[in-house]
Amino acid sequence: MNPFLGLFESARAATFLAQQGPVARFIFGRDPQEATYSAGVEGLFMFIFWISTFVFIGLMAISFYWAVKYRRRPGVAPQRSPSHNTALEITWTIIPSIIFISLFFVGFRVYAKQVIAPSDAVRLDLIGYRWGWNLYYPGGVTSTETLPAGTLSASSVPVFMFPEDTPILLEMSSQDVIHSFWVPDFRSKMDLFPNRSTSFWFRTSTLQPGDMDNPDLGYPNKEHILYCAEYCGDQHSQMLGLIRVVPRDVYENFLRNPWPEGISLVEKGKLLHSLRGCNACHSLDGSSGTGPTWLNWYGYEHSYTDGSTHLADADFTRESIYYPGRKIRSGYQNVMNSYLGQINEEEMRALIAFMRSISDQGGDPTAGFPDEEEEETGGN
Amino acid sequence: MADQQHQGPAGSPTSEKEKLGFDPHDPHGFHEGEEHGHHILSMRMLVVILALLLALTGLTVGSAQAEIIIAEELGISIPQWVNVTIAMTIATVKAILVVAFFMQLYYDTKLNTMILLFCLLTFGLFIGFTSIDMGNRDRIYSWKDGQHTPGGTGGLGLERGAFDSDRNPRRTTVTGPDGEDTGRTRRASEEVAGAITDYSADPDVARTRIDADVLERLERYQERRRAQRPAASPNRVTDLSSPRLFAPPDDEDGDGNN
Amino acid sequence: MSTIDTHNAGQHAHHEGSYLTPHGGALATIWNWATTIDHKKIGVMYLFAIMFMFFLGGVAALGVRAELWEPTRVVTEVVEGETVTSYTGQVLVNLAPIVPGVESEGGISAGMNIYNRAFSLHGIIMTFMVIVPSVPASLGNFFLPLMLGAKDVAFPRLNLMSWYIYVFGSIFAVAAVVMGGVDTGWTFYTPYSTMTDADHLRVVFVILAAFILGFSSILTGLNFIVTVHKLRAPGMGWFDMPLFVWAMYATAIIQVLATPVIGITLLLLIFERVFHVGIFDPRMGGDPVLYQHFFWFYSHPVVYVMIIPAFGIINEIIPVHARKKLFGYRAMAFATLGIAAVSFLVWGHHMFTASGELAAMIFSALTFLVAIPTAIKVFNWVATLYKGSIAFNTPMLYALSFLFMFTIGGLTGLPLATLATDLHLHDSYFVVAHFHYVMMGGTIIAFVGGIHHWWPKMFGKLYNERWAIVGCVLVFIGFNLTFFTQFILGTRGMPRRYASYPDEFQFLHQLSTIGSWILGIGFLIHLGVFVHSLVAGRKAPENPWGGLSLEWETESPPIEHNFHHEPIVKHGPYDFDTVQPPHTDPAEFPMPEPLRPGERTH
Amino acid sequence: MTSIETGGNPPQHNQQPPALSTEPRWKRQPFANHWRSHAEDFDACKIGMWLFLTTEVLLFAGIFVAYAVFRMWYPEAFANGSHHLDVHWGALNTVILLISSFTVAASIRNAQLNQQGLLKINLSITLVCALLFMIIKFTFEYAPKWAEGKRPGVWFSYPFAADPNEHIWWSLYYTATGIHALHVLIGAGVLFVVLLKSFKGWYGPKHYTGIEVAGLYWHLVDVIWIFLFPLLYLIH
User: HEC profile for C454-477?
Assistant: First the structure.
């Protein structure tokens, strides 16, 4: 195919050998995802690592030996020695150059695998925002599960399910600032931009019966932590996610019935509060964050930066979520993004029901959607 | 006394040079045989250069106007690169005239010319590499785009050997509705898509429904991609519908218009 | 030694004192220093200003490490039927009452916001106010003219102006810190930097500070280029210059060619923030990736502005303290220029994850070009040790630590230049460790080594060698403990700029934090050594190490016009095997046997 | 004094001998004591100035790169925006700057030939040209466009914009011409100082470093306009 083919093959063999062993496990921790490129990346790293270690130890050993052997002794003159040697200098220019060139080619070869997804990949949309991720499954289904607060030292970590043994292609974009999608187990990452779409692909592994990263689940599963790797503000370190590889039937079941069995509207709203990243700015315990707290928000009058006051009823809540820039609460900044097109009607209902449930003026949150009635309550 | 000093060394430079082995006023022979920096341009030369510059200005304006006239009157549209090339060539010639004669670079030390060339080289690197990146982000797009389908349909895209990780896809036997063997196999990811397609028939899960007709969906998706993609840079998505964060003071609704 | 004294003795009847000799009373002395155009005084003022800023940046770094001692843990408990959420493990949040612009009631955000300000402060101060000017502006200003045998730099008043611009810019930065600091990171990536703290001038102040400091950098570079071209002593050809001068020259070229681009970048960024012109703002059709191109076109070459001067210092320290002619002088000189040239071709490797596959491929290939001259340099340094006469004093120990850490820093650059591995390591702690090994383990270590090497010459005082060695060893241990752990954190998946992290990383983070304390103690010991030397140090001889370059010919500290007579160069700067260093005793610095007839050493 | 004692004039020579104080300033202008001769001082100043011009060019490089990239992406916006500029004012400003460049070049010649009267006249013409340039720029270019809503970035409110990205064009237009205008002002300021000094007799055949250096700066301002003019006004 090309003159570098032999080089590739020998490099591939070398990287395969290099990635085996306790040193690689010490450096990388978890095993690489058994996708097409993860092991390749790790192997290439270990290949570079072993070359580097060899060179480094060699250089340091020589330096140390000479430094001690030729240490200064009072009154003793240094020996004569050459101050250059063309052949030697050319040698140590050429050999590293060859190594560097081959590293580039092997690196590019693996890179091509990292950026170019197979044609039959399952394509999903991923949106990053401060500070969370929204993954859109077919038909607009999104994640409905978060890890308990405090897991992974983060306040909420959404769980994204993927079917086993499937290539997944994520079409990614950002809502606000630059983020970066990094799953260390996959050994790859890609930035998300607010004005262009980028893509990231990986192949989920084939689950073995022993794969029980989360033993509480009744089925085999593998979990990988997802990090935002591009600095994006205060809670950059909270912008985690959990990628859970599940058997196909579990995945299919999830797509069919995304919400847990028998979940109430209020509970759904509470889940959405963390799933959609509301919790990054809006607390539930009365403390003020980037945005106002939701505790006792609904049904009360609040003042706004334009001098007006407004009752927080269902319509106003809807407007505040879809067009957050229209009215800014006094003491806060206009930093919220519009959720127009991201929160559908049912989810909006759930959120409003949840807000009502944590407000003294909320009335009975389970009592349908009676806006007129609410206004009366608020007016009192 | 002062003048004498300003004029530099007294005594014979040659003899000093011979004695020391180098010229003490020019230790590294930098200015050897060079008389520079004190060239006096003739008035005639200056006027000629100015006249040339003004003529070139007229020419570049004229050519741009002529192009508009040709385009409007005769209906011949001249390709853009002609316009750009003419204008930039004339500008370059003008700049060279100014630099070489008004700024006297032509009569100056070579070092100053080198400095200018390095500056232009750096400029070239900057604009060159930036343009390479910003203008060619779609180069491998044909590999990356076009064949993937929402939700994953598999097999519909072109098979690509070199970069396809899935050279030996795990294929499973496709079973019919009642579990009978249909004699077909399909790729791993097809199964998921198939499963989803099945749900679309279920009225209870209408929200998760995706169109059964995969081909139609593929077409629509690709159409959307094409529409989203401006001619010059296909993978940029500029969403102007989102309200701007910073509106002018008199811009109430934040949509950029008063 | 090699100076040909062709002077009429009567001509120098007036006595010239050391440049440190006070002029009149305290006020007069201060005025004299404030208006001086003497490159030595400007260099010394720069040195102290940079040390001060290094202290500020170091405190911020210790704060960052303190925050990372423990991850932020979310604790929810039910008190009287209500769910109360609290956070443990946050350290810097205790500063909330005194940091303007931070809501102390802000829940988890407040502490993380202060952490972000701390690392931004650390990055901005260390990059723009410490490492970029460190060696060129202080040691370079002081020793470049001395090594060239000149009386001053080419434009002394411009030099003073550059110092005042530096002070002016630093004041802006410090003012922004007093106003509450910024949380943009030192890279000011848009759109984050145009959105954060939207109603405050802090960010604009910091950007303005970086913009102003750019001018200081440009003026220093410009001055050095002209100085090297025009003010070399008689007899000093290009390849008779000490390699420190070569390094300064290469650095200056980069400074002049790259710094203006950061000027326009930061100017556009200020326009973006103040006027919202939309060039970098994606909401208005602008492009953040374009900003990254602009930013890294300066900021990658400037990485070599940071490290090439360090090469220069090591090139001086190793031959002098090993009493050995530097191995491969010309290769060194060309490698220096080569690195400077290639530095303009590789900025895109900061954007491998920002898509752009074609550019990524080109930039990856070009990035490996930098590694070749760098490798040559390291080999040459090691080869220089061969058959030398190596003194284990503080400068040499620093040079050996430099060799150790810079080699690690350089080698870990390889997986970052390789496309595939960079996608994993980009923006992780691996990168943090890598550039600290190069910037800190390379530049700062060489800088501190250089200060020790030239301290007797600069101030005419010797320092306490024993304590300096203790400091050096502590710095070495502390540095490696702090940053080697971060390599492993990075490969295991710890992203950078995280105020909190999953528990699995805690052990390594704690090791790293302990290392940072040791590192801090090491530097404090050095500070003590310097202060002690200034107050009570013994008088230094003219040439304590037996150096051969021109600065060792004059007195310690140098006289006001540097040399009593203009020196004439008759030998190379590293001809230790043929020339007895000036002002040295042959018994203390014995020479190798003279050449036998027909014998050649090189 | 032997010629090897070439370390510039010792400090005491920097003070003018009182007997010579009636001579024109340029005749007794000393050079800094670290130079060996006037010629070296002059040379160094010129090299320094060329290096500084390098930085100026690279400062503008940023704007040119932004122009190139956005032009590549939004050709329509740039074509539309360019049509709103009046090529006549642009051409007039080009002519004005070219003439001013000519007069600066001529004033250097005047200094070299000790034509003190012409020197002042030429410098004054240059300053008048700079003033004219700025007047045209602000009165006939910026003011009407700003009033019509053709403003940069978020301020853009021109109702008949045909392309959604036209504000980018205006941002670049104002940034490029604004920074250039700032350079015109700086250059004019420097030339004004030179003019004042020329009244005191600072410049003559042996000493015209200041005027040469200021002239180089002025020519650079002209050269940048030579490129900005077609890019902004002519390339549709």
Answer: HHHHHHCECCCHHHHHHHHHHHHH
